[in-house]
User: Fold these one by one.
Assistant:
Number 1:
Amino acid sequence: MWGLVPLFWPLLKPAGAVEILAHRMVWSLVVVGVALLALRRWGWIRELMRSPRKLGLITVAATVITVNWGLYIWAVNAGQVVESSLGYFINPLVTIALGVLFLKERLRPAQWVAVGVAAAAVLVLSIGYGRPPWISLVLAFSFGAYGLVKKKVNIGGLESLAAETAVQFLPALAYLLWLGSQDSATFGTEGAGHAALLAATGIVTAVPLVCFGAAAIRVPLSTLGLLQYLAPLFQFGLGVLYFHEAMPPERWAGFSLVWLALTILTWDALRTARRNRAAAEALATAAATATAATAATAAMATAATAAAAHRARSGAATGHAAEETGDTTVSTPSAQPGR
């Protein structure tokens, strides 16, 4: 669905990018609100309202995703689908760079190589475009910052989207009302079909996110990471094959370097996951062996204790029987003469 979104935004013309963005914010809150009402998931709101820090982070997340959404809509409708797809191709590399800068994460050698190759790709593409690929860079860094903030907030995907669109709702609604007062709004003036498409921006926003949230708890992280490349791949294909955007040799060279960087990154991630899984299995096996050995030792000790106790009881019983036998032997002869 994310990969096919470039086919949707042009359908909303003659609405401009900012008007489309405002409708997306308003209708997304409506759709998410209905979903939360159906699921009866409201308890998180009270907890969120009691945390000024989380409210501040939600506001930051809403701001950066507004930049991301607005620029993407504008870029697609301005015929920059290929450059937009590049932003989501390099997003994993930007996320790694943000992790190093803000979370003090340490990179493995292969990750450094991937980041270096990506930097070379940006340089080649800058030469090809005659300017830095600013659309790609802003999309990648805004979405990377969005992911970083959401990591700090740490609430569910649906709840997070509801909180973010709640922050966006009033400014977006105010802008739409202002457009209407200026007779510049297209909602309702371009027919019922166009109005329905503008309202559908909420569904287009919410449904892929809900699906992603559902998949995230069911699919291994390595598989999920690989599937994330499908969206920019579809977008790139649409830009080249459907929208017929130009791809001179230097752009192909730049994209090839990006794909090489992603290949290195994916290979390193899969290799690391495999090593971690093997180490975890070895640790689990060692723990199970140690537990079995401890259990066997305990069982042997218990058996030995039981045997010793049995011998002690047997010895005591034998001694007592001997005493009783001795008493009878002595008393019997003295009894016989009495008969």
Number 2:
Amino acid sequence: MNTVMESKRILYVDCLRILSIIAVIALHYTAEILTASNDFHTASWWISNFFNSISRFAVPVFFMISGAMILRTEVQSYQAFFKKRIVPLLISLVSWSLIYGLYNQYVILKSEMNGFEFLLDFGYRLLTDRNYVHLWFIYAIIAIYLTVPLLSKWIKACGEKDLRYYLCLWFAVSIGGRLLNDIVERLTGTGISIPLLNIPFFTGYLGYFILGYYLYHFDLPVRMKNRMFNLGVLSFFIAPVATYFVSVQRGVLDEMFYGNYSITTFCMAVGMFVYFQAKEEALNAKLNHKVQKLLGSISKASFSVYLIHLLIEMMVSGKTPLEASLLEAILGLLANIFLILIISYVTVKILNLNKVTTYILFGGRG
């Protein structure tokens, strides 16, 4: 989903983007089944929980890719940076907030709201990020991009040890603190606030952003990479099973292991990144030019697919029945995910044929 265009394709980054956008589609498609019923023993709930759990790496990986790509370059001009990076995102945010706002009000809700009332409501929702569920990412990435002109200078002044210190502290605050709070809350019914962990610069998605830069630029020891990969694989199995048990305990879906700062999500994201990074040479050797070109095309369209996919999902996809069998649930889910992906990608490519449309809808991005 990173909007930075590279002059030379990095194949493992393309693969990560594609897998992440597929995972995002899976997350949104399975969300309805997971929240529609508290019968945790049905095949449809279990399959939805499984795919939702193992797709949680997507958002952190998108932030990591963005950090790896955008922090490579030095910001020479604030004006040029804002024009190239921030303005396209703002255009996409306004355009798609309007599209989803209109669709929600007049197609889904069958609202009789007049134009003036709609504009007032739309303006409030745009300002407060209440237009549509997935557009939060644009707010988050804009906020991080605003720091890049300063952040890039700080990053380049740091050595590997400095960045490792930052990442360790960010992990303790954002991942460790979240884990501790979740455990205490589920044992006592009340969360825990630790004043020592209230360090703003070491919280939030900025850590994933810097982690992506770190993993991209510094070659870790093989033993460390293997540990990260193994923890990632283990987390892919733990997340759905743990979600089942904590949900049964609470009687409703418990998203402790779904969060972007959960320990399992963190391990999955890092494991995915280091695995595909290590496969760069092998991918280049095994995949021919046409396949690489196709992967590059889908990868470049990932941000646009992210913007449009929920609209496509509402229009064309079918929902998996709660009483579906195991095979029906699996086939139905996979068929709908790839249907949404293909239609979204083809629609984006058609829209990209017109430069004005591309600029208005996607900020000029493919």
Number 3:
Amino acid sequence: MPVWGMLLSALAEIRTSKVRVALSLMCVSALVAVVTLAIALGGMARQALVQTFEQEVGRPVTLTVDAPTENGPSAMSDEAIARIEADLRRYRILGSPLREAMDVSYRQVLPGGTRPIKGDEETGGEIRTVGANPGLDRIRRIQVASGRWLVPNDSARFEPQLVVSAKFAEQLGPRPVGAVVEISAPRVWVRARVVGVLSSGTPWSPTEIYMPYRAMARWSIGADQTQYIVRVPKADAGQVMERLRADAATSWGLGQPMIYREEGDTGAVSGTFGKVLVAVAVFLLLLGSLPVLVLGLMAVRQRRSELGVQRCFGATGSDLFLGVLLEALMVSCAGGLLGITGVYAISGPLFGFLKDRGPFADADLAMDFPWRAALLGMGVAVCVGLFTGLIPAMRAMRRSVIQAIRS
């Protein structure tokens, strides 16, 4: 039987068995829709995980150079940092000193006086102050929503320039960029100016302020503890670590510093997440295929006389096998397209809700329709068609002419 003849036979059977086809479409479309949504939400969760790691630690691979002493961490001197930066320029490697403090107070300067600023307007909390070079935004994931990021000239300004988080900016009023605040330095309040506001980030992002490292060191703001972070290509991470250890012992004056390689567990967690999604997809595939399989077996049983007549008129077992399998594939593909269309219709409101109020609120995630998940959903639909059509097609192929005449 030619291919077009099998197509016509499959279409005729689909038009005849409307109830069975409708039930099969419902099962397959629901299955594909659930799998597509699960893959899309899993991708968003992985993206949020990677984003959080890159904000807090750095993009892979980030090396952290620490010079501990017997009494705990100690600060790197300006001379040591200058020597480190000279070597990194020679190696063409990007790095930045990092100085963090949690015991700094802030207050906003208003025409009628000043008012304190908390880590959170409702619950209070600490503010993390970070001193770094302008190149930090290429080491860590830092995105500015309004204003600008730090520039090299900011390190020479007498008035520190600040880039604040969204939680801090909310307390400064409707126009936070350009606001004047005061920072509690030892024995004096230092006047500073806000030049940029960070994007909202994830819901668990801390309230933090970035300022030039030189300004922070000049005013002795924060604890006297400093690290140095370096971003290197992943392939050269081991070689660079050995080179930095050798330079630290010979020219930096840091003795035997501790150098940590920060790649994060995002790859392992993402891999585990992917395996869980695959397991869920396989479970749904088996669970959603059972009703369709039962309907297909019942249809072959009801058509045993028709299949026998086709054998009498010259149809081979292969023709019957391919005809039944082709019918199952057509129904499953139609159900897959229906399920993907339904997910596409609700993706806009659903992703908007998740971005505004859901678990991914305030995260800087891509909320477009996941076409990769849709393609995987169509793959699931094809697998369902093959799985649910294979057994009925084999039974149809084995149908003998004598059994059909007796029935």
